[in-house]
Structure formats: structure tokens, C-alpha cells
Specification:
Order of helices and strands of chain A: HHHHEHEEHHEHHHEHEHEHEHEH
Number of helices of chain A: 15
Oligomer: homodimer
Helix content of chain A: 40-55%
Chain lengths: 344, 344
Amino acid sequence: MSQPVNDLFLRACRGEAVERVPVWIMRQAGRYSPRFRAVRENVDFLTLCKTPELAAEVTLQPIDELGVDAAILFADILLPLEAMGKELIFAPGKGPIFPRPVRRREDLAELHRPDVEESLGYVFDALRLLRRELAGRVPLIGFGGTPWTLASYLVEGGTSKHFEHLLGWSWRDPEGLAELLDTIAETSVAYLSAQIDAGAQAIQLFDTWGGLLDAERWNRIARPPLEKILHALAGTVPLIYYIQGGAHLLATVADLPVQVLGVDWRQPLSAVRRIIGPGKALQGNLDPTALLGPVEEIRRQAKRLLAEGAGGPHIANLGHGILPMTSVEHARAFVEAIQEGPAG
Amino acid sequence: MSQPVNDLFLRACRGEAVERVPVWIMRQAGRYSPRFRAVRENVDFLTLCKTPELAAEVTLQPIDELGVDAAILFADILLPLEAMGKELIFAPGKGPIFPRPVRRREDLAELHRPDVEESLGYVFDALRLLRRELAGRVPLIGFGGTPWTLASYLVEGGTSKHFEHLLGWSWRDPEGLAELLDTIAETSVAYLSAQIDAGAQAIQLFDTWGGLLDAERWNRIARPPLEKILHALAGTVPLIYYIQGGAHLLATVADLPVQVLGVDWRQPLSAVRRIIGPGKALQGNLDPTALLGPVEEIRRQAKRLLAEGAGGPHIANLGHGILPMTSVEHARAFVEAIQEGPAG
């Protein structure tokens, strides 16, 4: 017997009519889940990313456990930077570290344009495996970081409080930084195109740190390398641009050639829609910490989210990744309350 | 001979005509300055705050070194929380730590309402000393944190990435958190009133983390304790409300009973003014990392800032604290370019 096909997510991406609002959760394959932690116990983070069978296993977990309407490949946005020749370490409890950050034009010589099939083949293997195992049950999302956000980690050498190396470079030598961003964009095009070839049915681009820039500087610095990617991928699969802390950039990103705009929780979707106009589906945006509240409150917030999103195509999600301290039961309450619809 | 009196800053706060735009810099008494580091070498951070002669000394340094138009007391927003009974540690390189954070309603019993003259008298002594030493040369600013921002440190136990304890509490037990915020507001009223009595000629309230909330939740959670303070201080000295990452809250904070709104660098002041209307002076908002660029670029940005702020009363500043890696020469270039005026 063939399994039922749930393509609600893809139809919502394209702005088509859907029977109900689809829902998935950023970082849904993650540490909040005991099943994920059980896999992670035996293997470090990068090995998990690089072992297609294990990456596929944790990618599938939330489909069963939460009943979400889309799968998103378990991977990390920084993998292509490692493939470009920069050592990448995930120290437990410390987040990503690039021991040799790129901070000046001279450092660019240390980067190379990788053969993505060779250096990132494990990602494409995982995607092929997942498409077979999913068999249409839910769509499969691939993803990457925007060049600006990838550069933020590569230049700072990891996470940062003030991003002074990245931003300092942007004031000191904008042409040199533009070269870095363009180099990252070129590899991203190859990487994301190969994800699509391997079966990714949508691509989400994470711009976690795009909001560091004002609109004028975002347009000048962050937009060109991002558009290089978007234009190269145009006409393939639905593209989702997610920006965190970008309330001041909404009018600016409204014209990006993507089908879906993902936003954080800082503004209701109705307000976002007023600013960006009717041309895009919206994805988001419940505050992830709302899932730390009681179930009745989670349900109330889910219904409010449906009401806020009702003015156009909507894919329900959190406004940022689910927090490790969230209980599976609470994550499931959110998914169920969305899937019941506004009246449920 | 009496020194010249520079009250440009106070007149700009009140929306009065000024010959030129006044300028000061958040964290102007700070680690970027070798003279500050020389003092700090011999004394830990909290001792520096608590020794009026030393606090006054570093407060005065940038008046001579940069020629800014206002002095701001060297202190820390968290001092009143220590006075409320919570141990506060500044571990080198780690930022502030509360070893016993307040995370549940039951923890409120550990807080008391301090006699501020007794527990924070060193702050008022420093202010009195400074007013004598300044003798009208430039106005003296006192400051505190908003209850929401103070609570963020007290609940998380220090700085935080996701603020999950604070925000989780807000969903789980909003009444308990409201009680904490109100308790902090009560002590803040006593603390800031005493600063004014001791000679502070303006008060800046830092809402570094106000932007974590959407407008509806900011109004419900963060506004009542803030307004308690603002109403108590009304009619005394000019009040400045500074919000970081608050682009989505500008329309919401526009009606706060303060004379000055301080903002970060993410939106040009002209856009901020369009949203908040003509009733307030604006303070800010050059990106602190712009001071890491070349002097010609700093000058260009300073002139652009003057043009952006020209639609109403403006106090030039950075959009956030000056970074430790900034050179004194670059900070001075910013101050001078502002003081020359748009044509300079």
C-alpha cells in the first residue's frame, strides 16, 4: 500500500489553496527530543551531520513524533565553509568555532571553491535516502545560510556578541568583504543546486544575522551575494528567506525573488503582511519560549497565530529554533492545535 | 575664573534651540581608553563603581579626552539589584553573574527593598563630587536599567542567548514576573530619585532587552513597571529612554512620558522620527563599529548622522556602547565631526 501524500507545505509555499495551514518547527530534529539525544549520545555533532543514515534517522524522528507537515534535513549551515577549506569545530557547549577566522582580504587566499559532490556528498546522500524513505509522506526541505550570515561566523570565528570583526571589516574594506561574500555565494549556488538535484523540494536560506545592518547597508552589502544565489536557483523549487531580528528590513526584503518569507516572533504576521504586501507566503512565527508555558496557553497562542496569518498563504512555525528545554509534549500540543485549525 | 557653561545637551533634551548638535558616547568612560584601563588595572570593576573618587575620575576622563558635551556617571545598571540582596559577581571576561538567579515567585522572598542611601550611597557621593568638579562645564547624566532589562539579568543569572528563563516565566506565571518587575521598579524609583537629589541633571533608562517582546507583550509586561518609574520622576530632570533592537516597538514607545528617545543604529533617525512623531528629541545612533573604519569614513558618517537627525531636536551618540577595540583617535574624530556641524 502506498502511503498518503501530504503536500500541504509545498502548496502553501506556492500560494495555492490548502485545506489547512501546514506546520513544521525550526530545529525540529534537535536536543529537545529524547529520541534525538539518544542518537546524539553515541556520536559527535559533525559525525552525525556526515553520516547519511544517522542524519536521515534524526530528520525523520519529528515526522512520527510530532506529526509535522514537512521534514527538514539535519545538517548545519556552516558545512559548506568547512568544505571551502576552513577547519570547523563544534566544542560541546560552545557552539561552532573556526580556529582560523577570515578577517582580511589576504585571508581569502585560504579559501577554495570546493567540488561539492566530493566534499559535501554526505548531504546529498542523506537527501536521496530521505526522499526514498519519506515516499511523499511529507515534503523534504533543504537549506543553507545566506552569505552574510555564513560570513558572520567565518569572520568572527564563531558566535559573537557585537560582531566587531565582521562589521569593522565592512567599514574598513567593503570591497574585500564583498569578495568574501561573493565567494561564499558561488559555493552556495553549487551546494544548494546539488541539494535540489538530490531531492530537496524547497530550500530555506537562514539570515540569522541580517538584522545587524540597516536597510541601506543591507542592500549594499548583504543583498548582492544573496540575489546571486536566488537568481541561480530561480524556477527550481520554492525558496524561503528567513530573517531573524529583521523588523526594520521587512520593506527592504519584500522584493526578494523568494516564494516565502520567514520571520521571528517580534511582529504579528498581520503587521508583516501589511509591510511586505500580498506576493509571498509567510512562515512563522510563535515565540519559541511560548512552548515553555502551559498547554492551554500554547493552544491559545497557536489559534492566535492562525488568526494573524489568515490574510494570505501561511506556513505555521516558530519564530526561531525550538529550545532544548522544551518538552516533546508541548511541541506536539503546538502542532496539533495548528492542525486542528482555528475552530479546533 | 569661572569655566564656560555648556548646557547644549540639556537644552536639546528639552527641545530648545541649540547652536549645534551636542554629542556624547555611550560607555565613553570605558575600556577603549588607555587612561581608563590605567585606572582599571589597579582595581576590579565593582570596586571602581563603589569608590566615588575613582568613579568620578573615569567619568571625567572623556570630557577632557574627547571633548564630549555631557558626562555620564560611571556605574552599572545592576547595582540596585545587588542592593536588593542578590550577590553580583563580575568575573573577568565573563560579564555579570548572579549566582542565585530569581526564577520563580518563591524566589521573590529573597529580595528586599533597600535603603538606597545606605546601600548605594557611593553612587550619590560620586554624583555630588562630579557636580562640584564639573562646575557646569557639561551636564551630568545619571542612569538605570528598565525593570524588564534588569530582570533579564537577574532571572537568567547573567547575560543570555535566548533568555529562556525570563521569557519562559513570562508565559508560565505572568503575575509572578509582574511582581518581580514591580519590586524592581520600586527600588528604581528610590535609586533614581536619589541620583537626581545628588545632582544628576538627566536620567537615561537603558532597555537593552526590551526588543525581545512584541508590542502587545511589551505593553502588557514591560510598560507598567517602566511607567511607574517615569511617572514618579516626571517634572524633575529630562528623561531618556534608550531601546536596543526595538525597531518593531517604536510606535509603541512613542507615547512614553520621556523627553528623549535613544535608539540603536538599525534605522536612520529620519525614519524613527516619522514613526514616533515630533514630540521627542532623538538620541543616537551611529553604528559603534563605524568607529573601526578609517577617519574619513567616520567623518562622512557623522555628517550623514547630522543630516538624518536634522528634522527635530537631536543629541548625537552611537547606537550602542563604544567597543573596547576602538581607538581614542577615532572616537575623537566622531565627536569633532559632529561638533563642527554639517558644513565642517
